[in-house]
Amino acid sequence: MAVNAPSTELPPLIKESGQREVFCGLTSIVWLHRRMPDAFFLVVGSRTCAHLIQSAAGVMIFAEPRFGTAILGERDLAGLADANEELDRLVAQLLARRPEIRTLFLVGSCPSEVIKLDLARAAERLGAQHRGRVTVLNYSGSGIETTFTQGEDGALQALIPLMPMAPAAQAAQQLLIAGTLADGVEDRLISLFGKLGITNVATLPPRRSTELPGVGPGTKLLVAQPFLSGTARAWIDRGAQLIKAPYPLGVEGSRAWMAAAADAFGIAPAQVAAVLDPLVERGQRAIAPHRETLAGKRLFLLPDSQLEIPLARFLSRECGMELVEVGTPYLDRTLMAPELTLLPEGTQLSEGQHVENQLKRLEVQRPDLVVCGLGLANPLEAQGIATKWSIELVFSPIHGIDQAGDLAELIARPLRRRSSLSFT
Ligand code: SF4
Q1: Which one of 24, 72, 119 would you pick to mutate in the ligand 1 pocket, going by the greatest count of ligand atoms within 8 A of its CB?
Q2: If you measure from the C-alpha of residue 84 to the centroid of ligand 1, how many angstroms do you get, rounded to a whole number?
């Protein structure tokens, strides 16, 4: 275990690496394919990869899970020429059958990495074969390289080179929101930005994979999801200006997130207050009944979704929870700086995962609630500790001031369930 200091007010960061209990980046296909119905995510993997997506997420994502099995089960693992031929054949069949596909993502997996199948070259080759019909991109969702939200970071980075360059004058007027949000939440946020006076708002991913916004020097980048480190860096490299703000979770974070964007566009704080403060008051009223359940309860967040730090900030500052430990799979100090300053003094952060050590600390601490991955929830519940699946938070519309009450309710639910069980 290595120890580094994240900031002067927080205790030393616990840095760990060991056994991980986190879904791989393939999982993000579940929300990305809903977001871009004209895109297709072809996992180049094994039957295990197919099962992960179909059963853990409860949906059928891609039509050809047998492809992966063909590579591993029927082909010589060293026979890359065969694997490439098989991939070309499968893609041709897929495109013939599905004329609506405009963007095809070849998604790498542990098996494709192990056999060193070069998907970047395959995407280039297939892109050339099907030019004009479909754009072919690739990224990795492998569990060796990614945790489940990092899959989205990979997919968005693959799209960035296709985004047209916007002229500087146009770019400077544009707000670009990064990260998949529920459509209804996104519409609401865009309409609020309009009321603030920001009317040129683009999003990545877009709702149609081919309608990519232009980016140029001075485009103002507002990150909605804290797990998009690579995407943010790639945009900054293209001249976008990162708006530094906490993430739009809870009333306080969401207001600060919108206010930071308004500030970047020179909008007066009085205008921000006029538009947002009525919502703030309503949001706080929505949180209040859940705060009664959450206040004083001890919370331990295991590293999983990368939403942990903003979530901990919301639950401590607005819901009165006591933070025992806040784990994150990866700590991006640039993207997380505004959040870290809002954490209560003395918050124990941990980065990376070593399940055994974390479970030992949990055993000593006996928190009231643990936010964790699916794999750890059942054993913890069996020990009498209430749990919340972090993956549920990624699938739920929790962003924005209007959703703060729902977010508090989602977190309070397992505690309420446990207390009602203990009285029956
Ligand atoms: Fe498992 Fe790796 Fe496939 Fe993910 S990519 S399902 S971790 S084999």
Answers
A1: 24
A2: 20
Is the separation of the CB atoms in 137 and 124 below 8 Å?
no
Of ligand 1's listed atoms, the one at least distance from the Cα of 109 is 5
pLDDT at 313: 98
Contact (Cβ atoms closer than 8 angstroms) between residue 282 and residue 368: no
Look up residue 315 and give its two tokens. 């639950």
Residue 332 half-sphere exposure toward CB, CA atoms < 13 A = 20
Whether the predicted pLDDT of 5 surpasses 50: no
What are the angstrom distances between the C-alpha of 182 and each of 198, 207, 398? Answer: 20, 11, 9
Q: What is the 8-class DSSP label of residue 222?
A: E
Per-residue pLDDT reduced to its tens digit, 169-196: 888 899 999 999 999 999 999 999 999 9
Query: What residue has token string 């991109």?
Result: 137
Q: Residue 130 is which amino acid?
A: H
Pairing, β 386-389 against β 349-351: unpaired
| Cβ–Cβ < 8 Å for 49, 113 | no
Instruction: Quote the pLDDT of residue 232.
Output: 95
Amino acid at 107: V
DSSP strands (E only) in 10-53: 13-15, 39-44
Contacts (Cβ under 8 Å, ≥6 apart) of 323: 299, 301, 312, 315, 316, 343, 344, 347, 348
Q: Helices 80-97 and 119-129 sit at what angle, rounded to 10 degrees?
A: 40
Backbone angles phi, psi at 363, to 5 degrees: -60, -40
Inform me whether the pLDDT recorded for 415 exceeds 90. yes
Query: What whole-number distance in Å separates Cα of residue 280 and Cα of residue 220?
Result: 24
Of residues 335, 160, 162, 169, the one with CA closest to residue 235: 160
HSE, side-chain direction, 13 A CA sphere, residue 299: 31
How close is the Cα of 305 to the center of ligand 1, in Å?
A: 17
pLDDT tens track for 64-83: 432 333 344 445 455 566 77
Do residues 385 and 393 touch, judged by C-beta distance below 8 A?
A: no
Token couple for 419: 């207390």
Pick the residue whose CA is nearest to atom 6 on ligand 1: 49
The residue nearest atom 3 of ligand 1, judged by CA position, is 49
Whole-number Å distance, alpha carbon 109 to ligand 1 midpoint, is 6
Angstrom distance (rounded) from CA 240 to CA 204: 14
